[in-house]
Amino acid sequence: MRNRRWIDAFLVAAILITVALLYHKVTRLWWIWDDTFLLHIVSEHRVLDYFVDGSVWRSMPQQLFTPLLTTSYEAELALFGPNAVAFHVVHLIELAALAIALAFALRLWMSRAAAACASFLFLVGTPTAVMAMQTMLMHYIESVILGIVAAALFARAMRSGRNVPLIASALLYLLAMLAKEIAIPLLVILLILPERDLRARLRAVWPHGLELILYFAWRFAILGKVIGGYVWTFGLTELPLLLLRTVAKIVGTFAGPRLAIGIPFVLLILIGLLLRLRSRVSAVAIVIAFAAAIGPIIPVAVYYDHRFAWCAWICTAILFAAGADTLRNRRLALSLMIGVPLLGAVVNRQQWKGEFNRAKRMSDEGLVFSDLEPGDAIRMPAIVPGVMFQVAWVKEFVLHRPPGTLWFYDDLYLCSGQKPRRVFGFDERTRQVREITAEIPAIAGRYCASFRNEPLNLHFHYDERRHLLSWDLGPYADGYTFVASNGFLAYEVERHGGLQLFGMKDQTFRVRYRSPAGWVTYSPELTIDFSRDRELTWRR
Question: Disulfide check for 312: which of 73, 293, 426, 525 has CB 3.0–4.6 Å away?
């Protein structure tokens, strides 16, 4: 017993060290992605508002319902103030806690070695590298932690016949959904756990069914709808192809940017999954598990992001370890359990480099922006255009620095005659944000001279009932951008796409096409009225 405790203590220490070694650089980052947006929300609302005030969530473009996320930001802001480093440290602690919970919970169904393998394989996965970098994704981590504990309690309740752990499991299931809706399919996962028989599991899962009904009723009361709330949309006829593309992109995420390393890694993972296919029941359970992991991301899969592969990666790590654990040759099993996570760590480092460089650029741009004077501007930041408004808000109302600093995402801004006092931009060579004021006349001259009156075909349709703006652009395959306010904002878009828009009366913008040859062409300013159905067509 004492030896087991020492082994457990060593495992916990190893997980903490692994998280620190792989991801400690995130403590060098400032606020990135939606951090500033969430800080804005929690600075203007009470904790109770996140759970009962629908206006908090309906005012957001995505119209999600994740009250535990805002509650977490509220708590950390109260404890640490606007200290980004503290937020990142807490984020890493939560990530380590998830890995520890996974390692101990999985012992209910597999050996200690296999459970540890699943935990470390999870940590080195490329989706986890993305998760570790973005504190705004803490609700994913919190949701999975709550889900793991809920599943473990359900299994113990099934084995012991006691109702207390069953009720506790159901309550944690509700909290997991309030953290992030990715937890909704956990109910299905409970039904395929190897506890007793399916009929017994169906009888035991009734408290979770009640919590699911409660969650959907709560969500409807807050948002006015049970499902939806995502921005990017697609038609039902596109679903099969979208599903195939999403699975391919998830596998690509697993492999990372270097296929010479990533492909052998994915093949070894596949071997572990195949080893788990010992029966038809196992095959059906694996299909259900992956469907539960991938299903919740399909509504946003048109705009794929590496983090969307995270639940599928957790499922993969568990099933690989379970497959390796079935080998009778224990030396071979241990070789797989040790070797594959080590190879995964190499893949992880390849993915980490690009992700961290991008995050560091956004972080540096935000820090520089927060120090700039009124009348200064930052050119083409990597920060998402909509987020820049929140960075400006944090600068003024959280950091109490003077407002009036500008930004632009398209050099049309310079061609329109705008002359900021000073201009700063990111230098790819030095990977620093520096002043480029002296270079602006030459930049503007080159860009303005690249304008051409080339063919451009645009068709927009707005569906008022669905709040859906869809478009078809041509005649070129790609290279399109929606540009607003003469370059103040710009959003790259696909040739064919759709976007749900809530709370907007109209929108005025141009469409830009950038040729691989270097020239650009713009449409005139177009205005779409969102108060009614609307068709808009323009051709040159």
Answer: 293
